[in-house]
Amino acid sequence: MATARSSIQGEVLLPGSAEGEVLKLDRPISFWGGVDPESGRISDPRHPQHGESVAGRVLVIPETIGSSSGSAVMLELIARRLAPAALILGKPDAILVLGVVVAREMDHDDPPPVLLLPPAGQAALASGQACRVGPEGSIRV
Amino acid sequence: MTLVLTEAECETAGRDDAAGLALRVVAEAARLLGAERLIPIASAHIDGCLYHGDAGVAFAERLVAGGGRVAVPTTLNVGALDLLHPDRVRAAPARQAAARRQMAAYGALGCRPTWTCAPYQAGHRPAAGQDVAWGESNAVAFCNSVLGARTNRYGDLLDICCALAGRAPDCGLHRPENRRATLLIETEGLSAALKDSEVFYPVLGAWLGAEVGSAVPVITGLPSGLSEDRLKALGAAAASTGAVGLFHVAGVTPEAPSAEAALGGQAPERRIALTPEALRKARDRLSTSVAKTVDAVALGSPHFSYEEFGRLEAALKGREIRLPFYVCSGRHAVERLEAEGRLRPLEDAGVTLVTDTCVVVTPILPDDGGVLMTNSGKFAHYAPGTIGYGVVYGSLEDCVATAASGRVTRDEALWR
């Protein structure tokens, strides 16, 4: 990756390292009904980023909403290797992250690291940036 | 804050079997949420029995193979199949077989095969103040708000792990201090006629969810004696457009004898007077289509209650339905109707009954895409993303009138 221009520190919820292009959600999303588990694309036509793929992205999520099936969708995405490379959450969440917890129990490959980064810290991240997440929670763009 | 497990919990977590896996997952969730301990639960409602893909089947079957058995009374939400009407679902045979395996696995874990997203209308009603672990966003909202039992929004996977462990993380809405309302929503500026109509409640819910996210609101100005079906519609929509797990209605819900009581005697962080304009916008957002005709009509999200069937019968009187018309419900309501000889006349009038599942979670509607009319805020929210249908939102009566005439008919009088 090119020389890092800035580094932010997130709190590690589930450890790991990852690299990918940032996709920052402009509006909250329900993974169930909002992300297609078979393609990894945002499938809710009301969402401003409809059609974007979450696969391999460093997904920045200010807030999650909606269905409690989000964990199942996350588990399927990981099993199909269509999951985000990393999750950066604005608030702790036991729905989306649980999909990652169970994927680890089930020994699926490459479950994404999950970091907590409050909205103020997320302001430095923008869609399209190349990003590297380190095992101790560093976020370099 | 550090999570502390009891000796017995630590021992279970070290095991190789399903009980060990379940306890590890619950403990991990507790750690993520900042809970200091696990607490016993009285019951569970599981949303994880719906097929999303083979990883979910593998997980459920791992629990069965590991000797998993629920530790508390547990009901099941919808699956991806209508087991009573097997030809309703159009999914490919391989997908149906996988969905059936997933449903069977949850049954083998000792869950009751209720297959409904309205378990609270199928006899699963924990007492006020009891800690439970419920999944399915509308069921969570109802359980907390209307029954006064205490649950967080348990996602798929965690819900069954809590049921197997008989434990849940002690945090969030399990703790009384987090159940206090922080937002005051005033509906005094809306007409009494509107508040007296069914069609108002999903719209209020859709507005509420988008406005408050995951905060706990108390709503004032709604009529006392609000029916459970109206509260159900409100909560379901709020839990779709937002992450509402608990709302209070002053003078109606058990933790809100008054707005002051729901606010715990403190000043609200925000006070919002809901205007007719804001509500109209929320209503407009529920529809994604301005088509003059629709391809199908669907009612029953959450699952239609016995009482709602009565309203449908009244609306149908003397009318002939010309469009595919689906009503999704649970066995609890359908068996009662059948015993009373009321099912056949509905079917003769053109109603297609869907049980054990619903039209936005599995392919039932004709073709892959079109325009759907519904009276459900939840269907309206999810149909575009899950089944590729555009949506026209209207009242139950609007839906019946549209199905009878073939042209979109909506009573606009209330919204002017």
Describe, in plain words, how this protein is organized in 3D.
The complex is a heterodimer of chains A (141) and B (416). Chain A has 141 residues and is α/β, with parallel strands linked by helices. Chain A has one domain (7-140): Phosphohistidine domain (Glucose Oxidase, domain 1, 3-Layer(bba) Sandwich). Helices cover 17% and strands 23% of the residues of chain A. Chain A has helices at 70-79, 96-105, 119-122; strands at residues 7-9, 11-14, 18-24, 58-61, 86-89, 114-116, 130-133, 138-140. In chain A, strands 1-8-7-3-4-5-6-2 form an eight-stranded mixed β-sheet. In chain A, β4 (58-61), α1 (70-79) and β5 (86-89) form a beta-alpha-beta unit. Chain A is globular, with a radius of gyration of 14 Å. The relative contact order of chain A is 0.29. The mean pLDDT of chain A is 91. Chain B is built from 16 helices and 14 strands. Chain B is an alpha/beta fold and 416 residues long. Helices cover 39% and strands 14% of the residues of chain B. In chain B, the strands form four sheets. A five-stranded parallel β-sheet of chain B has the order 12-11-10-13-14, with helices on both faces. Chain B has a four-stranded parallel β-sheet with strand order 8-7-6-9, with no helix packed on it. In chain B, strands 3-2-4 form a three-stranded parallel β-sheet. In chain B, α9 links the parallel β7 and β8 (248-249). Chains A and B meet through α1 and α2 of A and α2, α3, α9 and α15 of B.
